[in-house]
Structure formats: structure tokens, C-alpha cells
Design a protein that fits this description.
By secondary structure, this protein is an alpha/beta fold. It is built from eight helices and eight strands. The chain has one domain: TIM Barrel (Alpha-Beta Barrel). About 35% of the residues lie in helices and about 15% in strands. It has an eight-stranded parallel β-sheet with strand order 7-6-5-4-3-2-1-8, with helices on one face. Belongs to the CutC family.
Length: about 240
């Protein structure tokens, strides 16, 4: 386990990105349209954020609500979007597509991964909607660039998924379980001790970085509180 836990913060724009970096975020997930749970941002937004901060960015590849790729036409659009994002400076990505049976849509995933051309990527919370998590991990095992699963352990969030997260952390290194677990989705500070004790060292926050909700920007102070707790400082000593 790394000494410093990774803290990833969702950013919608340059203001969010600058605030998150100032608060101690290690990485940003760039998205737009949180009403649809996060879609692909514009290339211009990616370029502006890349120019404003110097921490790593992972850019969402998802053009519609839900976890379907949208058939052959949708896959073509996704691959095209990757090209535009890479031209704008994106080097890391987030994606995840399921078929009608809840298995990984390998046709879509492999086509997009081909477009990434070796870039590192996260398989996002589509895993929490999969019919069989273990089978999905094994379907994706060995795909180039896959280094992280963003997961709450269950569709309902970390409260429901905590036992699954702890069990999966214990399987690190088995086929399908080499990628890092990054926990996100209803994540709270009080979840952190059990997750850290299990060896999990990556955490993802969105709404938790925005005290006034998604209508407001990322709060540097909120991110700093998470950074301090992940560094091992007691939460009650921190300003909110």
C-alpha cells in the first residue's frame, strides 16, 4: 500500500479544478452534466483545465446516461470523442460499458481502448451495475491501460457495498484483481478507516467536495479536509 492515499475529485470546470488542486487533490475526474451522472466534457474544457492545473486528469468517455455504448454508431462516436480529447491534451480516461445482460460490452470497451492507444484508464461504476462483478473483472483482465476500478461495491453506494469492497481488496493480485480499487459513490469520511485498514489507497469524491451541492463549486476547504483525513489526521481537528 502506498504511504499517501490517492484523492480524486470530480471537476466540471476550471474553477473546480483549481480549487481541488489547492485543497490537495492528487487527480481530477473531468465530466459534464452530473444530472446524467457524468458525461464527456468538451475538448475545450479539457484543454482549459489542462492549462490551469498540473495534477493528472482522467476524462470521462460517456456520451449518454446509462451504461450502454449505443450500438455501432455509439461506439464510433465514443472513439471519435477520444481522438478529440487526446488532441486537447487528455492522457488518462474513465469509461465502462455493459451489454443488455449486465456483462462487460467487450466490443465497445475494446474499440475505445484501441482509440486510447496505451493511455491509462479507469473502469467506472458500471461495475456496480454488473450482473456478475467477478466475471466482469475477468472479462477485462489484461486489457492495455486498465489500472483502476472506480466502485462503491454496490449500486446503492458504499454503505451497501463495504463488505464487497473489503472482500475484493483481499483478492488483490488474483486474475482480474490487479487494478487498483478506487472507492467512490456515497463515500463518507467515516468509511475511510475500514477501507484503509483493508489496504485500499484510492478515494473519489464528487458531492462531498461541494458543501452547497452540485449547483456550487468545489470547496478547497472540503477537499483539504479529505486530504488531511487520508493523511491520517483526526477529522475533528479540521475546519469544515
Amino acid at each position: 500500500m502506498s504511504m499517501r492515499a490517492v484523492l480524486e475529485v470530480i471537476a466540471l470546470d476550471t474553477e473546480d479544478a483549481v480549487a481541488a488542486q489547492a485543497g490537495g487533490a492528487d487527480r481530477l475526474e473531468l465530466v459534464t452534466d452530473m444530472a446524467a451522472d457524468g458525461l464527456t466534457p468538451s475538448a475545450s474544457t479539457v484543454a482549459a483545465i489542462r492549462a490551469a492545473v498540473d495534477i493528472p486528469l482522467r476524462v470521462m468517455v460517456r456520451l449518454a446516461d446509462g451504461f450502454a455504448a449505443g450500438g455501432a454508431g455509439g461506439v464510433d462516436r465514443l472513439a471519435g470523442a477520444v481522438g478529440e480529447l487526446r488532441a486537447a491534451g487528455a492522457e488518462e480516461f474513465v469509461l465502462g460499458f455493459l451489454d443488455a445482460d449486465g456483462a462487460a460490452d467487450l466490443v465497445a470497451v475494446e474499440r475505445v481502448v484501441d482509440a486510447l492507444d496505451g493511455c491509462r484508464w479507469t473502469f467506472h461504476r458500471a461495475i456496480d451495475r454488473a450482473a456478475d462483478r467477478d466475471a466482469l473483472r475477468k472479462q477485462l483482465d489484461g486489457l492495455p491501460g486498465l489500472d483502476t476500478y472506480l466502485t462503491a461495491g454496490a449500486a446503492g453506494g458504499v454503505d451497501d457495498g463495504l463488505p464487497t469492497l473489503l472482500a475484493e481488496a483481499a483478492r488483490g493480485g488474483e486474475p482480474g484483481y490487479a487494478p487498483r480499487i478506487m472507492v467512490g459513490g456515497g463515500l463518507r469520511l467515516d468509511h475511510v478507516p475500514a477501507l484503509r485498514s483493508a489496504g485500499i489507497d484510492a478515494f473519489h469524491i464528487g458531492g462531498a467536495a461541494r458543501p452547497v451541492g452540485w449547483a456550487g463549486p468545489v470547496s478547497t476547504d472540503a477537499v483539504a479536509q479529505w486530504r488531511a483525513v487520508l493523511n491520517g489526521e483526526p477529522a475533528h481537528t479540521l475546519a469544515v
